[in-house]
Design goal:
- This is Helix-turn-helix domain-containing protein.
- It is a single chain.
- By secondary structure, the protein is of the alpha+beta class.
- It folds into two domains: about 20-175, Jelly Rolls, CATH 2.60.120; about 180-285, Arc Repressor Mutant, subunit A (Orthogonal Bundle), CATH 1.10.10.
- The chain has eleven helices and six strands.
- Strand 2 (about 40-55) and strand 3 form a beta hairpin.
- Residues about 1-5 have low confidence and may be disordered.
């Protein structure tokens, strides 16, 4: 059962140092720690020891030792487990301070992409050794008087590259392809920026100077879904977040997501989920 009904999905504020934060899983707690909440930054949660479960966007995952969760800004999650490990939190602004950084540093946004479906990453023992060393180096740098964001970024860079390697290994073991057209990643960013207002494929196709048919072919080849299906997935996710974690009426959610007719929005939601918006909200709190 979910909690926090009747209030907008809260953003948990974490202690930052220059848009970066690193601390043990149990070192920072407030009233939101074990409640559904979200963050306005990227987050790596590394469970070194854990027993229980972790909810990410309405799906509960059993947690295990040496398991990694990667969260994008805005994803709703809830911890319900005994845990040891580390939080790594940072903003895109921290990692890409300038154009030179974008040209020389690893583009971590690919790592946090979840077109192929969200899931935790199991980490091999040899990688955990490197993770521990990098965490120690980051802590050492942060505790020093001459704290350098550039040094932290390079340690973080190495951590994320290792995480990507583990993600690829997990995908290979599960026979899931990870390499796809870079335009799909660009499309994801466009959808994230405009999904509340732009519901036509032509808008997104124009951004790539492509026809809607060709963009659909690209996304279908790489994700097995059309642009419309990807767009609808994002709209439905946000609708679910608001239905479960806010006091907004179905009508208010409808307008916020770019629909003019609440009745049409309700049909849209039911066609995509098999249940009406109100029934979904009621189901969350039985």
């Amino acid at each position: 059962m979910l909690t926090n009904r009747g209030v907008d999905i809260p953003y948990q504020q974490l202690p930052y140092k220059d848009h970066f934060s690193l601390f043990p899983l149990n070192a920072f707690k407030n009233e939101l720690t074990n409640q559904p909440h979200r963050h306005d930054h990227f987050q790596v949660i590394w469970f070194t020891k854990a027993k229980g479960r972790h909810m990410v966007d309405f799906v509960w995952y059993e947690v295990e030792d040496n398991m990694l969760f990667l969260l994008r800004p805005g994803q709703v999650h809830q911890l319900d487990c005994e845990r040891e490990g580390h939080f790594l939190c940072f903003t895109e602004q921290f990692y890409f301070t300038n154009k030179h950084d974008r040209e020389t540093l690893y583009d971590f946004t690919n790592l946090f992409d979840n077109w192929q479906g969200y899931g935790p990453i199991g980490v091999r023992e040899e990688t955990t050794v490197a993770f521990h060393q990098l965490i120690a180096l980051m802590n050492l740098e942060m505790s020093g008087a001459a704290f350098s964001s550039s040094i932290i970024k390079h340690y973080l860079n190495a951590f994320l590259l290792l995480a990507e390697r583990e993600k690829k290994r997990n995908a290979t073991e599960n026979m899931m392809p990870l390499n796809y057209d870079g335009r799909v990643l660009q499309l994801r960013r466009l959808l994230e920026q405009h999904y509340k207002k732009e519901h036509q494929v032509a808008f997104y196709a124009n951004a790539f100077a492509l026809t809607p048919k060709r963009l659909n072919e690209i996304t279908k080849e790489n994700t097995s879904r059309t642009v419309t299906e990807l767009l609808h997935d994002r709209i439905i996710l946000e609708a679910k977040r608001n239905l479960a974690f806010s006091h907004k009426s179905v009508k208010e959610i409808c307008y916020e997501l770019g629909f003019e007719d609440p009745a049409y929005f309700s049909r849209f939601f039911k066609n995509n989920t098999g249940i009406s918006p109100q029934d979904f909200r009621d189901m969350m709190f039985k």
